User: What shape does this take?
Amino acid sequence: MIRDFSEWLNDQLAQKGMTQRELAEAADVTPAAVNAWTKGRSVPRLAKIEQVARALGVPTIDAVERRAPQADRGEAEWVFQPAPTDGSRSGGNAAAFAFTADLGVLAREATQNSLDEQLVPGEPVLARYVLHELSGAALQRFLDSLRWDLLRPHLDAAADRSQKAGRVLADGLAELERTQRLHLLRVDDYNANGLTGPEYDDGRFARVVRRTLDSGKAGAQGGSYGLGKAALWAASRFGLVLVNSTLAEQEAGRTERRLAGRLELPWHVSDDGAEYAGPAWFGVRDQERGSSVRSWWADEASARELLLERESGLPGTSFLVVGAYDGSGVSAELDEMHQRLVKELGANFWAAMVAGEERPALLRASVEAWRNGELVEARTEIDPHAAAPAKAHAVRAFLDGRTVQRLTARTDVVELSVPLELARRKGDPPAKGAGAHEAVLLVTPAADGDEPTDRLTMMRATRMAVKSKRVSDLPLGHTPFQAVLLAGAATGRRGQDVTDAELLLRASEPPEHDDWTGTDDLTATYVRGARRRVLDFKAAAEQAIRDLLRVEIPDKEGEEGPAVLRDLLVIEASPASAGRKRTVGFPTVRALTGEITGTGAWRIEVTVRLPERETPWVLAPSASFATREGGGIPVDWAGFLVPASNCELTPEGHLRFEAGARSATFRGLTDVRTHPVPAQVASLVVELPRARVAEGVPA
Assistant: This one.
């Protein structure tokens, strides 16, 4: 920030290449007066400031407010970094090679960075993804604004197909020539800090635009490798990204439209034999550093011509990926790219976009697409409840304080506590106890069409999904579920244990931030055993889910499954009771649901109505196939039946129902190896005979 007139004047003299004597002559003042102003010994009156501004060729208001003058786009140029004289070469930015060059990775990394830069707590960060397809006159206007004539020779020289970066460049240039069209992706964030800080010294601007592997993040923020921003450059066929930032705090007396560009190329040789290291920057020439350019404060027209115009004056940054493409090959056309971004944002940030009744969402995200200035895909606001229905419902219940201790309905969300044993950091005194952090585990029945099910999704900090995995070793016949593990700041709590948990889990994340595991950062930061504690934490969460599945998860009220399956389900008592009316003195079925699994097995759930009785009922449910030709052919259960509520499994494999209970539920899965015909062409008959062996308990 410009603090006084002397600092502003010295900077303007340097950038204009003007001496104090030359300014004195042009402003019609004495050299001594100019010297006093540059030394801060005095400040000119308004009339003299107007003379100084005219002499420097800047608006008077800029001199009065001590702010940097705006620069016209025509003043911007590309400056390439000369190759080192020791003959060393770089095949491209190593940070960009840490990521797959696809839109899914870009959406994940860029949005996480935006969340980390939240400016006003309690207000969501706005992340807007805007796709552009340019061709014809619109393409030519953009390339002219970008000074493509200066870039193209360097791109051609660096397009060496013997190197990975060169092959991507060559393919991008060939695609541009073949199709005569160019894809751009602008990533805007609002309610973020923006690229604050000086040109070269430490700050957000220098870390993003000038430096590599420098994150500057700490505490609950997403990453520690400084790699996330590289995903933007990796998603450009040309390694080219432009920025336009609105700052949360002044730099050089201004906050709006700080523009710059960075190009990442490998080492190359120009036609005149000059060698270049690869990187180049787009800006106005820095007269104090002849081989460098500075960011510039642009006017609205310049931002508009470069397709970097922002929608409001809210602080934040717009990144324009030039030559955007999906390196995975999943999406190539504009509509496909739009769909991919919508899907990936929903998959990774649904939890951050969930709001409670009194707790706002952390994030709002949208995607839209334009072709030559015409809207072709309207703005799609990402709906977390559409992206992840059951999981979003679980997080909403947690935010609103509506969780329960036991599942009794399909809409219930159980909240459990899972301990994370913290590890001691190297350098801490041995006597200092590491303590423990209580993470929050949410479990709820899966929603219809909520695939894949039986998943545990783990997250911390700003509730980005770090990892989603299938829980193994689940009981047979269990009801599909979704589970969410909230650790660290994602719990919504504060305290030293929250901070320590964030630091431990952050150190356990690889560069992709897609797991909690052992890393070199974890080994370097924590004493031995830290990795084991992280792995035990994840294992404890899975075990808590298995334990919970012993509790009943009822189906929807009155739902008995799809009609095509209901027609194939038959409930029977013992064969001896067939053909006569049941009495209230024998257990009867209140509800029966079933489905045919992908392996062709029947998975069923039976709710039994129990007559009141002082001694337990002991039954031996069996299953058989009634084919179209008639007859019943027994089939085996795959393993043991699974008690769900008010019953237990005896050593003989029968079901003992609690004395005094009025209803109970059990589940079962048939053994496909014993099926005489495919399940789809037979009715499944379930019988409930009394058990012959009841361990001394009357049946």
Summary: The chain has 19 helices and 28 strands. The chain has a mean pLDDT of 86. The longest strand covers residues 125-135.
